[in-house]
# Entry
Amino acid sequence: MTNARPIQGRSALPTILLGGKAYFIDLEARLFRETMDPGRYVDFDSARGSELREQAGIVACLGCGTSVIVPVSLRGTQLRCVRCGMFLEQRDPSRRR
# Structure
């Protein structure tokens, strides 16, 4: 489950809860940072990161690598990358044959 709440006119980083731990989603750094200790993190490309990406609906553009969060209501539709315009593949690339 992802959410963003305004804090003093700014948007907070979206968060995800998995296994009793809450993580900030840092798309730019491609990290899930623990909310209680942001110095502790899970890399998007790790096994745990893959699990978190799938739960959060995060996909990466196969053309330029930009990561985006796809809302549940848009999953399964054809979406284009905001940076390069290529279609986003909405399944985890690490699960390919």
About this structure: The chain has one domain: 6-95. The helical segments are 47-56. The longest helix spans residues 47-56. Residues 89 and 96 are 11 Å apart (CA to CA).
